[in-house]
Design a protein that fits this description.
The structure is a single chain. The chain has 338 residues and is an alpha/beta fold. It is built from eight helices and 14 strands. The chain folds into two domains: 136 residues, Rossmann fold (3-Layer(aba) Sandwich); 186 residues, Dihydrodipicolinate Reductase, domain 2 (2-Layer Sandwich). A six-stranded parallel sheet has the order 5-2-1-6-7-8, sandwiched between helices. Helix 1 links the parallel strand 1 and strand 2. The longest helix has 17 residues. The chain is globular. The chain starts with 5 loop residues before the first strand and ends with a helix. It binds NADP nicotinamide-adenine-dinucleotide phosphate (NAP). NADP nicotinamide-adenine-dinucleotide phosphate binds next to helix 1, helix 2 and helix 8. The site of NADP nicotinamide-adenine-dinucleotide phosphate (NAP) has 28 residues, from helix 1, helix 2 and helix 8.
């Protein structure tokens, strides 16, 4: 198998740093690697696999000779560089929302819909973080029993909003404990000791863009009919890292909590922790820094006929962004799609 030349675009950001770590962890074999950012961080020194690299400012020529670009530099940067990357024959694996819903761009979670990668035309999109962890849970279940309805409530960590948001939680908490005034910048409301029922902007239908991403991306990834009822409420919580989700699923046919546990125990990327009588259930702290999507509190849903409720948590920077990006890179290499 030939080894690609890889560029990490947005290498100095929260997700970019995690991508760099995971390229090493998953032992991705490459010929050359380079690290790109905006002019702000160009010149930063980065240690990787025992070598020191200098971060370069991303320019169109930066992609000459590159085969795979792992991008986490925001939607406008991805839109700016995508034509240059594709023109040079490289594959862009993009973390931003720029191309996710475009018809000719596969939206892929590794281990869920890998075959969709074969249709790429130069760009592969990585789903939104709250969608990502959910897909690994839903896929094995709906393979056994089709889904009729889905309701998701998310409790999302501040790391999902980048470095500045992480710092805002710290500074806001310190100010609050010291009884000082604090001006929020990243969030519309104070994040310290609070829960904010808004992530991203509001749409005309009253949902936020983040909530509609969960609805639309789920349908695209799982190839579900557009009329299938899905609803989401997304909230930001004062947690540094690790998204939690309360999930209610109505199935076509009867299914028991034990059957769900058994299916999920044997599925890719998941770990079931579900013994409430012994206080065993997953929390964001269990998920932060590790790869599995953890599932617990699996029980019969009392509101739906064939309903199951469950709780799932995952590291939003890993499965919700960097881990899936690097797993996609691994698939693109294995399937020789570059
Ligand atoms: N955080 C998450 O959980 C998460 C999950 C899924 C997807 N994403 C997506 O991933 C992207 C990055 O998120 P993040 O949390 O890592 O943000 P971040 O910490 O703010 O990092 C942004 C990165 O992009 C670089 N960048 C910004 N503008 C650029 C430009 N014009 N040219 C080249 N590089 C540029 C920055 O470089 P400088 O250091 O030079 O500023 C930095 O390396 C966003 O699209 C976000 O929506 C994030």
């Amino acid at each position: 198998m030939r080894k690609p030349n890889i560029a990490i675009l947005g290498a100095t950001g929260v997700v970019g740093r995690e991508i760099t770590k995971i390229v090493d962890e998953l032992k991705i074999e490459f010929n050359e690697i380079k690290f790109l950012s905006s002019a702000r961080s160009a010149g930063t020194k980065l240690e990787f696999q025992g070598k020191t690299y200098t971060v370069e400012e991303a320019k169109p020529e930066s992609f000459d000779g590159i085969n795979i670009v792992l991008a986490s530099a925001g939607a406008s940067t991805s839109k700016l560089f995508a034509p240059e990357i594709v023109k040079r024959g490289a594959v862009l694996i993009d973390n931003s929302s720029a191309f996710r819903m475009e018809d000719d761009v596969p939206l892929v979670i590794a281990g869920v819909n890998d075959e969709d990668l074969r249709c790429h035309k130069g760009i592969v999109a990585n789903p939104n973080c709250s969608t990502s962890q959910l897909m690994l849970v839903l896929k094995p279940l709906i393979e056994k029993n089709p889904m009729k309805r889905l309701i998701v409530s998310t409790y999302q960590a501040v790391s999902g909003a980048g470095l500045a948001a992480i710092n805002e939680l710290t500074e806001n908490t310190k100010a609050r404990l010291a009884g000082e005034n604090f001006e929020n910048k990243c969030f519309k409301k104070p994040i310290a000791f609070n829960v904010i029922p808004q992530i991203d902007v509001f749409c005309e239908n009253g949902y936020t863009k983040e909530e509609m991403k969960v609805v639309n991306e789920t349908k695209k990834i799982l190839h579900l009919p557009s009329v299938l009822p899905i609803s989401c409420t997304a909230a930001r919580v004062p947690v540094y890292n690790g998204h939690s989700e309360a999930v209610d699923i109505e199935f076509e046919n009867e299914i028991t909590p034990d059957e769900v546990r058994e299916i999920l125990k044997n599925s890719f990327g998941l770990k079931v922790i579900d013994n409430p009588s012994n206080f065993e259930y997953p929390t964001a702290c269990d998920a932060s820094g590790v790869n599995p999507v953890f599932v617990g509190r699996i029980r019969k849903n009392l509101a739906f006929k064939n309903g199951i409720s469950l709780w799932c948590v995952a590291d939003n920077l890993r499965i919700g962004a960097a881990l899936n990006t690097v797993r996609l890179c691994q698939k693109v290499i294995e399937m020789e799609l570059y």
